[in-house]
Amino acid sequence: MDKIALALVLVVALACCTSAPPPTIAGRTLIGIGTPFLLAFKIPACVVSAAVAAPLAGAAELAGTSQAASLEQSLGDGLERNCGPPYVVAP
Predict the structure, then answer these.
(1) Would you list the domain boundaries of the chain?
(2) Minimal CA–CA distance to 36: which of 80, 91, 88?
(3) SS3 of 57, please?
(4) Prior bond to 86 cis, omega within 30?
(5) Which pTM does this prediction carry?
(6) Are the C-beta atoms of 91 and 31 separated by less than 8 Å?
(7) Residue 28 in 3-state DSSP?
(8) What does DSSP assign to residue 19?
(9) For every one of its 91 residues, what pLDDT tens digit does the chain have, with 9 covering 90 and above?
């Protein structure tokens, strides 16, 4: 277990060494100002998406139509887009 944790730390450390160059001052300003707004819009969008997608996915599964899988895939993609990353504005 200790070897796995050590290997994971090593991999993460190496991944950090290969990151992109730091953003410019204007980019940092955009990140600092834009991120709170992104989160302020992303949280309600995620909540509304989940509140709409959950009953629709359940109804589609219950109906058992041939389009249920396609609808569930579309709902999952929408939830991933609205609730998933990025959580920080990219410069």
Answers:
(1) 24-91
(2) 88
(3) helix
(4) yes
(5) 0.66
(6) yes
(7) helix
(8) P
(9) 567 766 665 555 555 556 667 778 888 888 899 999 999 999 999 999 999 999 999 998 898 888 888 999 999 999 999 999 998 988 7
The burial of 70, by beta-carbon neighbours within 10 Å (0-12 exposed, 13-18 middle, 19 or more buried), is given as exposed
Query: What whole-number distance in Å separates Cα of residue 46 and Cα of residue 83?
Result: 5
Structure tokens at 35: 């991120």
Containing H/E element for 2? helix 2-17
Amino acid making up residue 78 = G
Contacts of residue 34, Cβ cutoff 8 Å, sequence gap at least 6: 89
Amino acid letter for position 59: A
